[in-house]
């Protein structure tokens, strides 16, 4: 199979591409609801006073909450849509996080998604698109980096 995306560009032309920056406010009620939904019982994830007593600015975001920030900002299908790839031909292959600083209620988190690497397997029948999204808080401090791999079936 060739190295051309449905958009007509080669996959190599997408490596390094950055998408529009985004930002969003971290709402306390959303954090508490998320924490309860995942079964988090530590009070720093549920109560402002407990979080502040533990040294946080406010209610602490559970580790995977940072992914919801990207979902809320409409980042889910940027890459596939840009490449002209049908969503039904792709699956979520991997997800990873690195953490630099706490995300707390009241923070404004900004980020910018980019394509780090694209490679193929099975003679080009499978395309692996590796995406990275660094996040910063309102002070410009790095808080997390999200990585994911999308696997696209071709042919």
Written account of the structure:
The chain has 155 residues and is α+β, with helices and mostly antiparallel strands. It has a single domain (12-153), classed as Roll (Thiol Ester Dehydrase, Chain A). Helix content is 19%, strand content 32%. It has four helices and six strands, in the order βααααβββββ. It has helices at residues 28-37, 48-53, 65-72, 78-83, and strands at 22-25, 90-99, 108-111, 114-121, 126-136, 142-153. Strands 1, 2, 3, 4, 5 and 6 form a six-stranded antiparallel β-sheet that branches. The protein starts with 21 loop residues before the first strand and ends with a strand.
Percent of residues in helical segments? 10-25%
H-E order: EHHHHEEEEE
Supply the CATH architecture: Roll
Shape: elongated
Overall radius of gyration: 18 Å
Please identify which CATH superfamily we are dealing with. Answer: Hotdog Thioesterase
Strand tally is 6
* Terminal residue distance: 8 Å
In DSSP terms (H or I, runs of 4 or more residues), the helix count works out at 4
Coarse structural class? alpha+beta
Question: At the third CATH level, what is the topology name?
Answer: Thiol Ester Dehydrase, Chain A
Main sheet characteristics = 6 strands, antiparallel
Strand content: 25-35%
Give the class-level CATH name. Alpha Beta
Number of domains: 1
Unreliable stretches covering 5 or more consecutive residues: none
* Average residue pLDDT: 94
């Amino acid at each position: 199979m060739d190295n051309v995306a449905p958009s007509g560009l080669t996959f190599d032309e997408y490596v390094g591409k950055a998408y529009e920056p985004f930002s969003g406010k971290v709402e306390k009620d959303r954090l508490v609801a998320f924490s309860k939904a995942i079964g988090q019982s530590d009070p720093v994830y549920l109560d402002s006073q407990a979080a502040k007593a533990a040294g946080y600015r406010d209610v602490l975001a559970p580790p995977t909450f940072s992914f919801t920030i990207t979902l809320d900002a409409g980042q889910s299908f940027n890459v596939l849509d840009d490449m002209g790839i049908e969503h039904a031909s792709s699956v979520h292959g991997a997800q990873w996080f690195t953490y630099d600083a706490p995300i707390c209620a009241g923070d404004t988190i900004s980020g910018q998604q980019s394509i780090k690497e694209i490679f193929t397997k099975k003679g080009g029948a499978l395309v692996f698109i590796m995406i990275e999204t660094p996040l910063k808080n309102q002070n410009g401090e790095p808080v997390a980096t999200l990585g994911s791999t999308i696997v696209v079936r071709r042919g």
